[in-house]
Amino acid sequence: MPEIDLWRCSLALTPADQNRCLKTLNPGELERAGRQTRQPARDYFIAARGQLRLILGYYLPIRPADLEFAAHPNGKPYLIGQTLYFNLSHSQDRMALAVSKLDRIGVDIEALAPRSGLHKLAQRCLSAAEFEGWSQTPPAQQLSLFYSLWTQKEAFMKAVGRGLALGLKECEFSLHPKTALHRIPAAYGLAKDWQVMEFPAGHGYAGALAAPAGALQIAIRDRQDGY
Asked: What is the number of structural domains in the chain?
């Protein structure tokens, strides 16, 4: 049975854990961290890259600092010379990481940030049917429903390796009785060929995971010091 480990991590680390993450970074990552002009952004970048390396190192007989990464033409990263796959997302001080032997996995996490132009944004990002259903939702629920749809769409787009380049309206969800993948571009099969699920991402966050449909065993894990 294929397995996916879904890791939920904080990016607000203790000084000791932050330093441990820093020591795993390669020169290119250190340079990218140095280009961050705001301290929280710099710390969160180090925490995300470091925890990515520490968690992947938990599965592989390779030191976290020695892991090598590359990216496919559309930007999806992968481990060089390994058959272990991953997908990473972070927002504010939270991070989600999916790890599996399956290569077509995608994850997204988003903070539920209030938006003054939410109606216009929803109109741009949602299909006509989705937008109609969203508009009929009570106003107090519209923000959470928007992010529920956003994270599920982005998780699918990352799973197929396209990301936002695919277009948010190109994968459509039915909204009732609950959100479910309804239509995708023909190049990626049928909607029933895919499993897109929400996961508890923490208070004030939405999260979603996408993978090919099947008898998947999904384990949600919270990172503890030691990995």
From this structure: 1
CATH code assigned at 35: 3.90.470.20
Q: How far apart are CA 116 and CA 105, in angstroms?
A: 32
201 in a domain, yes or no? yes
- Asked if pLDDT for residue 1 goes beyond 50, the answer is no
Name the residue range of residue 23's domain: 3-222
> How far is 9 from 177, CA to CA, in rounded Å?
31
Cα-based torsion angle of the residue sequence 57, 60, 65, 66 in order, rounded to the nearest 10 degrees: -170
118-127 pLDDT, tens digit per residue, is: 999 999 999 9
Do β-strands 77-79 and 69-71 pair in parallel, antiparallel, or remain unpaired? antiparallel
- Helix H, strand E, coil C: the string for 106-128 is EEEEEECCCCCCHHHHHHHHCCH
